[in-house]
Amino acid sequence: MYRIIILTLFFIWGCGSNIEYPERIPDIISVGLKNEVKSSSISNFYIYPDTLSTPQMISIHEYNRDGFQTSIKNFVNSEMEFLMNFELDENNYIQAYVIYDEKNEEIDRQQFDANYQKEQCLSPESNDGKSKRIQFEKGRLHSVENLRNGNVSKLTTHSYNEEGLIVKTTTEWLLKNKKREQVSSHNKEGFIIKTETISYEDGERSDPSIILKFKDFEVDEQGNWIKRTIYDDDGVLRIEQRKIVYY
């Protein structure tokens, strides 16, 4: 689930050009981080009867001083699965993203051409006909289109509240006629307190909603949560800890 969220949420931010730039909203705002965050790393503990699992690293996100994401490290069983670096220009618009495997060998690179007047960027088509189109609205990431021979095969869109937090992410697999929505609720501090994930197939709900609730927050001096407990319908699911490094 986290792999999906991370690759979705995170997805990919910005573009680049010499013409006038639309206003950009720093990435840390959309995920609810406060102040000058250099990196955040999340570990979790799964709950078993009368005991906790050993901590497992999930991800590490790094940001520059302007609050824009520069890299993601994803982990499985605390072993690094891949590293994604974002190459930004001086205005924090993406020029390329590069993916490395666990041996730090480059396995994928995508360069982007930009059109800021339309607030979008497009990667060149690969040999197998794949490309991506990323679009922005009011400086925020709005949608990511996965293209195959010029046709959209997968579409991910984000919706925001007035504070700039992501409140809904919709992923559609158009060729399979499938869709997944994740709706997030936040408290006054901007922390996620509930997510509901709904799946559809052929326009009909295909599975029961998956509802998670986030409680028991511990907060650092900067106002960011560093520990929380996640509940599902059966009770406590896991405990997450977050280590935050500041500039």
What is the structure about, briefly put?
The protein is built from 2 helices and 19 strands. The protein has 247 residues and is mainly beta.
Can you walk through the features of this model?
By secondary structure, the chain is mainly beta. The protein has a single domain (2-246), classed as Beta Barrel (Porin), CATH 2.40.160. 5% of the residues lie in helices and 59% in strands. It is built from two helices and 19 strands. The protein has helices at residues 2-9, 27-30, and strands spanning 37-48, 51-52, 56-63, 69-76, 79-88, 94-101, 106-111, 113-115, 120-122, 130-137, 140-148, 151-160, 166-173, 178-186, 192-201, 204-205, 210-219, 225-232, 235-246. The chain has a 19-stranded antiparallel beta sheet that branches. A hairpin with a 2-residue loop joins strand 10 (130-137) and strand 11 (140-148). Mean pLDDT is 85; it is low at 1-19.
Which H/E pattern describes the elements? HHEEEEEEEEEEEEEEEEEEE
Which CATH top level class fits? Mainly Beta
Strand content: over 45%
Number of helices: 2
Main sheet summary: 19 strands, antiparallel
Rg computed from alpha carbons, rounded to a whole number of angstroms: 18 Å
Average pLDDT, rounded to a whole number, is 85
